Amino acid sequence: MTEKPSNDDRLFEEAFDLVIRLQSDPANPVAGDLVKRWRARGPEYEAAWAEAAEIHGMAGKVLEDRRGAGPKEGISRRGFVLGGAGIAAALGAGALFGPGLVLRARADHITSTGEIRDIALSDGTKISLGPDSAMRSEISPAMRRVELLAGMAFFDVAASPDRPFQAVAGNLTATALRTAFDVSRDADRLALSVQRGSVEARMPDSPLAFGERLSAGDWLSLDGPGGALERGRRDPSQIASWREGVIVAERETVASLVARIARWQPGRVLIADPALGARQTSGVFDLANPIAAFEAVVQPHGGKVRQISRWLTVISPI
């Protein structure tokens, strides 16, 4: 059974979200006022704020030290500390911050780090919602629609011939009748794979604009707006293998794979160098030890994993 986060953990999650928001747009009076009111709620809020701000600064110090060790190009300390929004986009908001304050307001279901939640919809569809993930659903006599707001989910769709089931992740829409499939969104990467039956994938302004039908064992992924569309096939038994504690990756960027593994790692995981994050990798990664999984992902590309504290892990070139 998944351990539920403590109140201290929850406060730290909120504080770190606010640190990033404020430092991404320091001149915004709304962000400043939000931080001020949040910190004034009590001493435990102020303590969480102080810890989050200190750890965020420590991450910049690691990068500063790395720059001093050699002439390698990389993101500057200022770019790292103040560029929280850019790093969030590179890693995926779900993995970097966990489902944040905005998602908590929008979602029907939301999970914490390492938590996999089984959800039964009123139409009989069964969903496994992955860690640090969020979704909302709309089931009515006329339609069946689920929006994956962050993270990953596996759908075992109940039969209902008059109501096709739609799963939406960003601009990607997967439409199915009676089937089982997996959808994920990590580091601006959208992925769809089919375990059973068939699914139509559609996305405007992309190679999927006119729709593409996937059958059991088919998978596809799209990296960012205008990014390359990857396709392939794998054993259907490997689809959504994260439910059994394993990730199977094929031609996936380091950034998206780290973002997915990070959903099992407490705290924040940051990739300091966008060039490292853009490298591609394949393999099978054990989620029982996320740090070892990170190392297996980045070491072939010259990357190093550093745990700054229990709250922060930084991945950078050696």
TrEMBL record:
Domain of life where this protein originates: Bacteria
Transmembrane feature ranges: 80-103
GO molecular function ontology, one term from the record: sigma factor antagonist activity
Name of protein: Iron dicitrate transport regulator FecR
Native species: Jiella pacifica
UniProt KW keywords: Membrane, Transmembrane, Transmembrane helix
InterPro entries found in the cross-reference section: FecR, Ferrdict_sens_TM, TAT_signal
All copies of domain FecR protein, residue ranges: 109-200
PANTHER family named in the record: PERIPLASMIC SIGNAL SENSOR AND SIGMA FACTOR ACTIVATOR FECR-RELATED, PROTEIN FECR
